[in-house]
Amino acid sequence: MKDSFNFIFIKNYVIFIIPIAYNSEFFVRVKMKIVLAYSGGLDTTVAIRWLSETYHAEVISVSVDVGQRDDFKKIEERAYMAGSAKHYLVDAKKEFAENFALKDVKMNGLYEEVYPLATALARPLIAEKVAEIAKKEGTEYVAHGSTSKGNDQVRFDLALKTALENVKIIAPARIWKMTREDEIAFARERGIPIKTESSKYSIDENLWGRSIEGDIISDPASEVPDDAFEWTAVRKQDKLRLSVEFEKGVPVGINGERLDPVTLISKLNEEIGARGFGRVEHLENRVVGFKSREVYEAPAALALIAAHKDLEKTVLTPLELRFKRQLDSLWSDLVYQGHWYEPLRNTLEIAGDEINRWVSGEVKLEVDHKSLRILGRTSPYSPYSEKISSYNKGWYPSDEEARGFIEIWGMHSLLTRKARYG
Ligand code: ARG
Questions:
Q1: Bridge partners of 245?
Q2: Relative to the CA of 284, which ligand 1 atom is closest?
C-alpha cells in the first residue's frame, strides 16, 4: 500500500516536471549577461561586438551623462548597431556637479598642482551607475573600455569591486591585441558605425573638463597643436569681469545671481573658455609607472579653484592655510590614484569642511587673452584689518615692542649659529 502510494507520487511528479523543464530555459544554454560602461567611442563600440562574439554574451550598454557634450540619441543608436541587447542612459550630471566637482573646489583638487582631475573624478560615479544596472540586470559581469596602460582601469576596477561584491570585471582592451587600426577594421568588417573623424586625439570629456591624449602630442618637447583645443578656442576678444560668490567653501552664484552647480559650472566653462583661458599642459606621473604628456581644458575648474584658494587665504589663519594645502595635495593624490574609496579621503574632506565653515564671500575676477586675474575679494569672516595693516593709520608697535619681538623671534637661529660656528 505504502509502496504503491510512493510510486504514484513519483510518477505524477515526473510527468509534471518534464514538460516544465523542457519548455523553460533549463535545457537551453542561458546566455551570460555583460553590462558595459559605454562611451560611444571607438573602443567601447568595438567592445560591444567583441564581448558578444567572444563570450557568446548578451551585452547591455550603459552610458552615463556626466556633462560631456555628446549626442546621446546617436550613442544609443550606435550601441544597438554594434549589437547591444539593451541600452541604458543614466543622467548623473547633477550628482557629478554636487558631489564631485564642488568637492574638487573645496579641496582645491589639482593633481601635481595643475590638473583639476576631471576624468579621475568621473570614474567612480560612472562605475557606481554601471554597477547599479548590473545589480538590476542580475549579473556579476561588468566591462569597461580601459587599457592596461592608463589610470582609468585602476579607478574603474576599484570602484566596481567596491560597489559589487562578487563582480567579474572584463576589460576587453586589456585582452584583445588590437591596435587602433585593427579596431577600425574590426568595426568596418562588421558594418558597425564608428566615429573616426576625431581619431587624431583620444578625448575624455565631462562637465569638469576635457582631457586630451594622443600620439600627436606624445613628444613632450613639441608644442601642442591648436586643433587639440575646443573649449578654449578664443571666441571673444573682450575682457570678462565677474564675481563669484562662495558659501562655506563652495561657489553658489555669479554676479549676485544664485545658480545651481550644473548651470554655474557650464556658464563659467562657456564664458571663460571663450576668452581662451583654461588650458593645462602637463608632463604627468601616472599611477601606472611612467610619465605621460597630457593636455586639459578646464576653464570653470581652474577659475573656481583659483578664486576659492584666494578666499581661503583671506579667511584662514596662516596655520590653517598651510595645513589645508597639505590636505589638498593628499586629497588630489588619492583621487588621481583611484583611491576614491580609501577611508582617508573622507577624513580629509571632514577636515576640509570644518576649515571651510568660514570660507564665504565674494571674489572678483577678470579674464581675457588666455589669462585670468583676481581683482579683489571680500568676506564677512576675514580678519583682515586696514587699520592694522596700513602704514598711515591706526596701530603701530613701539620701537621697544618691535625690538623685543624680533629678538625673541630670531633666538633659535642666532643661538644655533653661535653653537655651530662660534
Ligand atoms: N591622464 C588623465 C587621468 O588619468 C586623463 C586621461 C583621459 N583619457 C583620455 N582618453 N584622454 O585622469
A1: 253, 362
A2: 1
The whole-angstrom separation of Cα 283 and Cα 277 is: 19
Query: CA distances (Å), 275 to each of 4, 77, 128, 257, 281, in order?
Result: 92, 35, 35, 21, 17
| Phi, psi dihedral angles at 304 (to 5 degrees) | -70, -40
Residue 275 is given by DSSP the state: T
CA-proximal residue: ligand 1, atom 8 (nearest): 204
- Burial of 162 from C-beta contacts in 10 A (0-12 / 13-18 / 19+): middle
Using an 8 Å Cβ cutoff, are 244 and 363 in contact?
A: yes
123 as an active site residue: the answer is yes
For ligand 1, is residue 202 a contact (CB within 6 Å)? yes
Q: Is pTM, for the whole model, over 0.90?
A: yes
Q: Is 203 in the pocket of ligand 1 (CB under 6 A)?
A: yes
Strand partners, 411: none
For residue 210, give the amino acid letter: R
Q: How far does residue 218's CA lie from ligand 1's centre (Å)? A: 13
One digit per residue, the tens of pLDDT, for the chain of length 422 reads 444 545 445 455 544 444 444 444 455 568 999 999 999 999 999 999 999 999 999 999 999 999 999 999 999 999 999 999 999 999 999 999 999 999 999 999 999 999 999 999 999 999 999 999 999 999 999 999 999 999 999 999 999 999 999 999 999 999 999 998 999 999 999 999 987 655 689 999 999 999 999 999 999 999 999 999 999 999 999 999 999 999 999 999 999 999 999 999 999 999 999 999 999 999 999 999 999 999 999 999 999 999 999 999 999 999 999 999 999 999 999 999 999 999 999 999 999 999 999 999 999 999 999 999 999 999 999 999 999 999 987 899 999 999 999 999 999 999 999 999 99
Distance 174 CA to ligand 1 centre (A): 16
Answer whether 202's CB lies under 8 Å from 213's CB. Answer: yes
Site to substitute for ligand 1 among 218, 294, 339, 340, most atoms within 8 A of C-beta: 294
